[in-house]
Amino acid sequence: MFENLSERLSGVFDRLTKQGALSPEDVKSALREVRVALLEADVSLEVARDFIKAVEKKATGASVTKSVTPGQQVVKIVHDELVGVLTGDEDPGRLKIDNPPAPILMVGLQGSGKTTTTAKLAKRLKEREGKKVLMASLDTNRPAAMEQLAILGAQIGVDTLPIVKGEDAIAIAKRAKTQASFGGYDVYMLDTAGRLHIDAELIAQAAAVRDVANPRETLLVVDGLTGQDAVNVAEEFDDKIGVSGVVLTRMDGDGRGGAALSMRAVTGKPIRFVGLGEKMDAIEEFHAERIAGRILG
Ligand code: GDP
């Protein structure tokens, strides 16, 4: 399906005379290939353009070392630049959960993988850090979503706040806080309501919950396969709610990871975790190198 970028670039350079330094023309033809690779990886046009400019600066006049071909050299420059842009947090997997009980707010659109990610992170906190975690669903419009969190909780051995019919999201958030304080929990996770699209009510509710809970982390869950849409969603949520990090789900899918680059370049928010499947262990902290490799193909 995709041609590997290194192969493409060696194709370009095979047609050129070998010189000791990368001439501007060499770099230009190489960058055309890089651009195609980025766009195929679903990086937005604007981000691809800025990225190419930055690489062009670094690559023009860079001397070609004997051990590598000009193509490999450009690939390395592109790779390093990708890693530079993608890196947003030195320790993305470390959640700020001191001062128990620490609230973590989970936000995102319906279907993004928010509930699944809430449970995956709870399991991680329990198993890796020995934390006592409480999860609460605030999705009062969708009883099935509340049930889903309870089922996942039972499966992974993490407590969920009992469901009380007729309660609104704010009341649930307050009850979660009380239960977490009196129950000796280290962390409580609030799984907010999701909608198919961002609307005023969704944002207003998430903001109201944020004000009640005063979260240490607000994690936005977005579907990594939705490319530019994911970036628009992140901008909007960050603008209205303020997010401390992004979780990209479905990175086990066919996508090339371009959403990650656009996400970083446009929102500046660190990507903290990536979801790699439906199973409760299918999550890992974000590694810039891995995504860079995937974008380059
Ligand atoms: P929510 O509406 O945002 O809470 O989404 P859910 O957590 O219910 O997830 C929707 C669907 O996506 C479920 O079938 C999940 O198992 C699936 N899902 C969530 N995260 C991932 C992921 O990283 N990879 C894959 N392949 N599926 C995922």
Automatic annotation (TrEMBL):
One of its GO terms (biological process) is SRP-dependent cotranslational protein targeting to membrane. Signal peptide: none annotated. It catalyses: GTP + H2O = GDP + phosphate + H(+). Keywords: Cytoplasm, GTP-binding, Hydrolase, Nucleotide-binding, Ribonucleoprotein, RNA-binding, Signal recognition particle. GTP binds at residues 108-115, 191-195, 249-252. Its main location: membrane. One of its GO terms (molecular function) is GTP binding. Its EC number is 3.6.5.4. It is found in: Cell inner membrane; Cytoplasm. Involved in targeting and insertion of nascent membrane proteins into the cytoplasmic membrane. Binds to the hydrophobic signal sequence of the ribosome-nascent chain (RNC) as it emerges from the ribosomes. The SRP-RNC complex is then targeted to the cytoplasmic membrane where it interacts with the SRP receptor FtsY. Interaction with FtsY leads to the transfer of the RNC complex to the Sec translocase for insertion into the membrane, the hydrolysis of GTP by both Ffh and FtsY, and the dissociation of the SRP-FtsY complex into the individual components. Belongs to the GTP-binding SRP family. SRP54 subfamily. Part of the signal recognition particle protein translocation system, which is composed of SRP and FtsY. SRP is a ribonucleoprotein composed of Ffh and a 4.5S RNA molecule. This is Signal recognition particle protein. The gene is ffh. The chain holds residues 1 to 297 of 496 of the full protein.
